[in-house]
Amino acid sequence: MKKRRPEEARNRINRLSEALFGEPEEIDEKEAGQTLSEAGFDTDALNDRVYKRLYAEAQQYWKAQKDLPPLLKSALEQLRPLSAPPRNESELVHQAKAGVERIVEKAKLLASALLLDTPLTFAESFRNKKQPLTDADRKSLDTVQEQLKEKIERLKGHDGKSK
To answer: Which of 49, 67, 84, 91 lies most in the core, judged by the most C-beta atoms within 10 Å?
Structure first.
């Protein structure tokens, strides 16, 4: 493999990326995050690393008492970690919303893992029961079984009432 200048290497990577994923304008933030996650990247860690590199670059401008280039300033604002203390009320609101969204997403993942779409079967067992079931016992068990099925279906969101 021949040695390329950094600009040539960057152009080649850009061409390959566009061939795989399309133009940058064609992919939205959610799809990009999903693609990175599927490829095994931790998007939060990636954001933090990019932010730190951009922040180090911005420090050179600040030390020289120069204005930040608009794209660098915009990137720093967009990639600012949620763990950073909020500078104003709008950042506080943004951090709170993002935190709640993460919790909700994790709860949905947990619920989907716990509530499988397989048909439910109930096993009946009785402790210390020596005699066969009476009709009243059978009716009570059937009622409890139906109530459990309805509750599980509501939790899954299949009844149309809860969503």
So the answer is: 91
> What is the rounded CA–CA span in Å between residue 159 and residue 163?
9
Give the single-character DSSP code of 132: P
Choose among 97, 46, 95, 50: nearest CA to 76.
Answer: 50
pTM: 0.47
Diameter of the chain by CA atoms?
A: 90
Q: Which residue in 156, 144, 146, 151 sits closest to 117, CA to CA?
A: 156
Gap between the Cα atoms of 67 and 139, Å rounded: 78
Which tokens hold the place of 12? 């080649």
The reported pLDDT for the residue numbered 128 is 63
Give pairs for 116-121: CB < 8 Å, separation 24+: 117/156, 120/148, 120/149, 120/152
pLDDT tens figures, 5-32: 888 888 888 888 888 777 777 778 788 8
Q: In the chain, where are the structural domains located? A: 1-41, 43-84, 102-163
At a CB cut-off of 8 Å and minimum separation 6, what does 51 contact?
Answer: 76, 79, 80, 81
Question: Which pLDDT value is given to residue 163?
Answer: 41
